[in-house]
UniProtKB/TrEMBL annotation:
This is Uncharacterized protein. It comes from the Eukaryota. Residues 21-54 have a biased composition (Basic and acidic residues). Residues 1-54 are annotated as: Disordered. The lineage of its organism: Eukaryota, Metamonada, Preaxostyla, Oxymonadida, Streblomastigidae. It comes from Streblomastix strix.
Length: 54
């Protein structure tokens, strides 16, 4: 029955690994989204500055 225990453990370990990968991917996407939002904000600010100067 030792072998059965080990198989169960391995099978349980797989979804956990997948979950971690999904979480990391989500965080990466979130980070990228945040960065592009900040970039957009900066560009809009610069645009406003230009308009004020004109």
């Amino acid at each position: 029955s030792d072998q059965q225990q080990n198989q169960k453990k391995e099978m349980a370990g797989v979804p956990i690994q997948k979950l971690y990968e999904q979480v990391e991917m989500k965080q990466d996407k979130q980070k990228m989204r945040d960065e592009s939002l900040q970039k957009k904000k900066k560009e809009e600010e610069q645009q406003k500055q230009k308009e004020i100067q004109d």
